[in-house]
Amino acid sequence: MMFKMKKFLLSFAALIIFCFCADAQKVAYIDTEVILEAIPEYQAAQIELNELSDKYKATLEAEIGEIDELYQTYQQIKHSLTASQRTAMEQEIISKEQVVKSKQRIYFGEDGIMAKKSEELIGPIQARVNSAIETIANMDDYAIIIDLAITPGVVYKNSRYDLTERVLQLIQITDLKNIKQ
User: Per-residue DSSP letters for 12-68?
Assistant: First the structure.
């Protein structure tokens, strides 16, 4: 939810800037989804992140299953338990639920393992893409380059101003230079 709000605000800000600069400045667009999908390291990172996410989800689902079984057992036998036994079993269930919630935050929270792993794997790729975009913008004196992947509400685009392929070519050239060094 927070990410969508940030995307919206970013898009809105880009649109306002576009309105002020459109008359006198050069404007173009890119599609970072197309760019990222064309980078093999990004694909590998996505696969690794998906596998890690699936592993954590499976762990959590297994623990939730155990809690459900414990709760079902409690429901079946609670009438035969003493008050202190019921309280102890309820506390055990609550405690296990809190552990699962804690693990969810550790795995999938804003500063969780998945967020850190994503930054580790995807961050350098995004930095390369941003560097290529900035290079092209500076070379050709673009005032604004809009990313269609994060800008909702684009109702028209002229392919003449699409820099997606140029960004990809620059990334590939830079990668080749880095390999040769």
Answer: HHHHHHHHHHTTTSEEEEE-HHHHHHT-HHHHHHHHHHHHHHHHHHHHHHHHHHHHH
List, for residues 74-99, the tens digit of each pLDDT value.
999 999 999 999 999 999 999 999 99
2-180 topology per CATH? Protein Binding, DinI Protein; Chain A (3.30.910)
**d(C-alpha 113, C-alpha 99), whole Å:** 16
Residue 129 CA to residue 125 CA, distance in Å, equals: 6
Domain positions in the chain: 2-180
Question: Does pTM top 0.70 for this prediction?
Answer: yes
Choose among 151, 180, 163: nearest CA to 9.
151
To the nearest 10 degrees (0 to 180), the angle between helices 40-77 and 113-140 is: 150
